[in-house]
Amino acid sequence: MLNFEIIGRIFPRKFVKSIDAKLQRAGLEWYAEEFLGLLIIVSLLLTLAMIFSVFAFAPLEKFFVFLSTSLFGKNADSGSLAFGLLVSLVSFLVMLSFVALFAWMYLDYKEEQRRTEIERHLPDYLMLIAANVKAGVLIEHAIWDAAKPEFGLLSVEMERIAKLAIGGKSFPEILQMFNQRVGSRAINQLVYLLEESMAAGGEIAKVLEQTAAEMRRLTMLQRDISSSLLMYGIFVLFAAIVMTPLLFALSYNLVVMLTKVFAKVPPYRMNLGVSAISFTSPKITADAFFWFSVVAVIFTSLSSMMIYGILRNGNYLSGIRLFPAVVILTLVLFMLMIDTFSKMFTTV
User: How confident is the model at residue 224 (pLDDT cuts 50, 70, 90)?
Assistant: First the structure.
């Protein structure tokens, strides 16, 4: 069995610590070295698959032959050592970048999902702690008593810090540990207010009540902003799902039609004094434009969903959840529109 942790030790300690902190905020019980080692192994496996695809798929092989020839000389071909090294290096870099990007977005998504769940229950939880403190319960025990099952993930995290507090750790210290595990701006401000209140001898219960009321007000404000931006979100969805495949399908059929027309017409050059105009077949083939359109549709759908997530919830990750459904729908519409326009152009 592979020991991913050994492979992950090739990374600098500072980078490993940053990944470890991100894994904690995402709620994943993984060692950072083990996680990084797994990413390297997955990247290598995908690299082997991509190398096989290069030799099995003619357009990819032609592209790498052209790239190898441009870099290493005119005699480079698919059987040369330079070609093999170039394919291996480019494949590994592409797959490593893809795996790293996917892993980072996944961790961001889990972190945001966890943070949202905790912040949703936090105002009610703070009010319950404030009520316990007003009743004369110590803050450490108030945190433990308020950790009800209905608060979900928040209660689990609070039980963890309550055990640390009862075990002897100082309250400011465990608050900082909780903030590091969640990474929330609201919790960061709460920790700062509680530390300042305890240092100044203020009323902790009053601070908790006011903080809970302010968090509820901000939540309502975010909902109002999201509602006001609804029309912009609908426009982004319409542009991504309908207009993008429509324009690319129309352009594809235009390339196909021009290719057929110029195939029947000999090259013609018109002299206009100083300049001249030549009429020839398009340099871009229909197949090349089709695959370019597919890639462009996928990336347009991804960027559009990021924008939609920012408009709706203030975070691009909330729109990523819709990306698989949107990209499938967009590609299906793209194929249908190509077929529709091709039938329309045949009657012209």
Answer: confident
CATH 1.20.81 fits 117-224, yes or no: yes
Distance CA 233, CA 305 (A): 9
Amino acid at position 13, single letter: R
Rounded alpha-carbon distances, angstroms, from residue 81 to 63, 84, 207, 215: 16, 5, 70, 62
Q: Of 111, 103, 107, 110, which is closest to residue 183 (Cα–Cα)? A: 111
Q: Which residue ranges does the chain devote to CATH 1.20.81? A: 117-224
Residues near 266 by Cβ (< 8 Å), separated by ≥ 6? none
Q: Which residues of 101-122 are buried (b: 16+ CB within 10 A; e: fewer)?
A: eebeeebbbbbbbbbeebbebb
pTM: 0.66
Alpha-carbon distance of 251 to 91, in angstroms, equals: 31
